[in-house]
Amino acid sequence: MENSVDYIGIASNKPKGARPYFFDDPAVERVMNIAMAIGMELGVARERLDSLERILEEKGIMTRQEIENYTPTSKKIETERQQWHSEYISRILRIIQQEMEQMKNPDKTLHEIADDIDKM
Amino acid sequence: MTAKNLPPSYDNIARHEVFPELNHDERARYNFLANLNKHLAHVSQGNAIAFEQRVQPKFKEEHGRDFKTKEELGAAMAKDQHYQTWSALRRSTMEMRQQAGRSMTYRQAFALKKRVDKLNEGKDSLILDDSVQVPPYLLAVDNHLMPGSYHTELIEGDVANAANYDGGLFVTTAGLLGKYSDGGGEAIAQWLKNNHPEFAPKRILDIGCGIGHNTLPIAKHYPDAEVVAIDTGKPMLRYGHARSVALGYDNVKFMQAEASKLPFEDESFDWIQTTMFLHETGGKSIYNIMKEIHRCLKKGGITMHIEQPQYTDDMSLYEKWIRDWDAYNNSEPYWSKMHDIDPKELMEASGFNGEHYMQIGAQAVNDLDDGTQKADEPEDHGRSPIWNVFGVWKK
Asked: How far is B196 from chain A (nearest CA, A)?
């Protein structure tokens, strides 16, 4: 598409410098990062739901049962919802994308860069 | 932790004509991250406890002496489970903040560019110069983990990372820099007004201005002065200039220039300022930059530099080490070595007379402070808006 960028991929790019790991096993760090991102998205969903419920309640518009029974009524709605899932997964699996970027383009450690920079 | 420590909601941030649009989820994501940052400042206090209660005693028992170097202390702390958990969480939070900001600004990259272009078009107060090189110390690293740093353009006329920077400062600092994230510039301008009311600078230079968030308060307090803000990152300058126009300023010029090769005549500025800039330079460059500042400063003029506290002999080894965390883990690698420099020696080596050297403490002026922020706040080393300002009058 013209006038658009792959903002989902760009957003998860790794910054320069090999990533420091703090746990003895990097697997722990990977899982923790995924869990934290999910935690954040749950917070986001919770805030949105809170907005929704308060507005609906204030206006006396809808019942909880109607939400319970909802299914997409058009291809457009279906696509919007799937697009959301796609971005959501890229977001929570950020660390894996970054590890792949590091494998493809091995980068110096920040200690090495600090020494380089000290000579600049 | 009590409710007194809640950060202000993202809805309090000040918008302007080129500020990115945030949808409901993007605002909620920033609310989560500001709260997480605030929470981790508390988790950070566990590092001192772990150090005093188990890491230091164990080392003393094994070696029959205390730690001698930061490296020795760091190697022992790196094995501590609390430190591992806090570090992993803090790193993760910084990465999530960058991703949240960049997914938000890059999805609207073209719209942002269009709005910025509209405000910049035909204005001679924005001067871009293709011959200006991004210095190697900025090319070597993406400072504070912002992929692409200040200079990368993913589309023609890109301003997305600048908008990401503008929108995200509020999150990283949990709102402590005020609604325009300008608490640093505001603090320095107010200090000069209060302590030297007779000082009336005609021309002011701000080096490494970024989006100009700390430049504008200086322009506000000195409306009769011509303020020149320089940076090497085109996206930052384009966005910063448009932001300045949008906020109604007409006395600030944004110019692409490199700090160690200032394109100005000798003794042409009354005041030369840097704010949280020097720690993002390099070991040789910092001396070249300061020599250029000395050259361009008029007699009777002042230069001031806002940084995190320098590492002095009376600072504990533990504090120096914990303050170094951002250098290696938040990608600001010159941070550690820069804070080891004696700033007075730096000024003297650059031609200034050490007799006129001064050092003051400064705290961010926070226009969002409603009294709910202060109670039981732990010091978040490297993040708290409590700074060291060093400077010198050229006489």
From this structure: 36
Flag whether A65 is in a domain. yes
Domain assignment present for residue A39? The answer is yes
Q: Is residue A89 in a domain?
A: yes
- Chain-chain contact of B328 with A110 (C-beta, under 8 angstroms): yes
Half-sphere exposure of B338 (CA within 13 A, CB side): 28
Q: Which of B84, B106, B327 lies nearest to residue A10, judging by beta carbons?
A: B106
Residue A3, domain member (yes or no): no
Q: Domain count for chain A, please give it.
A: 1
Q: Note down pLDDT in tens along chain B; length 395 residues.
A: 344 567 888 988 999 999 999 998 999 999 999 988 888 888 898 899 999 999 999 999 999 999 999 999 999 999 999 899 999 999 999 999 999 999 999 999 999 999 999 999 999 999 999 999 999 999 999 999 999 999 999 999 999 999 999 999 999 888 888 999 999 999 999 999 999 999 999 999 999 999 999 999 999 999 999 999 999 999 999 999 999 999 999 999 999 999 999 999 999 999 999 999 999 999 999 999 999 999 999 999 999 999 988 888 889 999 999 999 999 999 999 988 998 899 999 999 999 999 999 998 888 888 877 665 554 566 777 667 778 899 999 99
Range of the domain at A33: 20-118
Nearest-Cα distance to chain A for B225, in Å, is 34
Residue with tokens 């609390």: B82
What is each CA distance from B199 to B28, B184, B192, B299, in whole angstroms? Answer: 45, 20, 8, 13
In this structure, is the dihedral angle defined by the CA atoms of residues A47, A51, A54 and A60, taken in order, positive or negative?
Answer: negative
Q: What is the pTM of this model?
A: 0.89
Alpha carbon dihedral B335, B336, B341, B343, in 10-degree steps, equals 40
Q: Which domains does chain B have, with CATH numbers?
A: 3-124+156-166 (no CATH), 182-393 (3.40.50.150)
- Residues of chain A contacting residue B28, judged by C-beta atoms under 8 Å apart: 43-44, 47-48
Provide the total of helices (H) and of strands (E) in chain A, helices listed first.
6, 0
Least CB-CB distance to A5: which of B98, B145, B154? B154
Chain B CB contacts of A32 below 8 Å: 88-89, 92
Cα gap B48→B60, rounded to integer Å: 16
Q: Which tokens hold the place of A17?
A: 């410098």
CA distances from A4 to B110, B217, B249, B367 (A): 7, 35, 32, 37
Residues of B in contact with A111 (CB under 8 A): 328, 333
Provide the H-helix boundaries in chain B. 24-50, 56-63, 70-77, 81-106, 109-120, 136-139, 160-172, 183-195, 216-221, 234-246, 285-296, 317-323, 325-329, 334-340, 343-349
Nearest to B192 by CA among B393, B395, B394: B393
CB contact under 8 A, B28 and A48: yes
